[in-house]
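We modelled the chain as a single entity of 174 amino acids. Its sequence is:
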Amino acid sequence: GGVYVVGMADSPTGIQGFAAKADAAVQNLAYFTYLDAAMPQGVAVDPAGSAYVAEIPFAVPAVIGPPMGSFILFGSNAIYKIGPAGGIAASNSGGGTSIALTANGLIVTGGSYPPTGAFQVACGPRADLGGLSITLLDVATLQPKTSAFLAQRSFLSASAPLADGTLFVATEGG
């Protein structure tokens, strides 16, 4: 067992995302692995002790104060597989805001995977809708098995996927 933590920290090259593992008593650090300049959002761990980290770019406003406009992005969407000893075993460029390990693979929400499932486009003729990407990844390759896009007028949030694959999504009605 152990305690897995993801976040951002100072590194020799600037602020970077990291994945860390401490022992169950949180007395000793097993590993601390820098990722890239993006912001880790979630972690899932398999029975063998590999950790899967979902991250999105770290955004800083280009202009401080009004008028708000564009953002400067650091890092990129990515998923990392961190081996039990702390080395990066695999990665891909889809990213996400949450991740969970299920019997069928890794479920990732909020990534940038192209939709392949039944839900692929915005609702009706409107092109101004946001939404939520939900993707099932192969655990070994971190490549998408299938992906869907749930279009909504205003996507508010999604729960972390549960181990059985259940996902709760909050949207704005009206």
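As a brief sanity check on the tokenised model: DSSP finds no helices and 15 strands in the chain. The CA atoms of residues 19 and 125 lie 42 Å apart.
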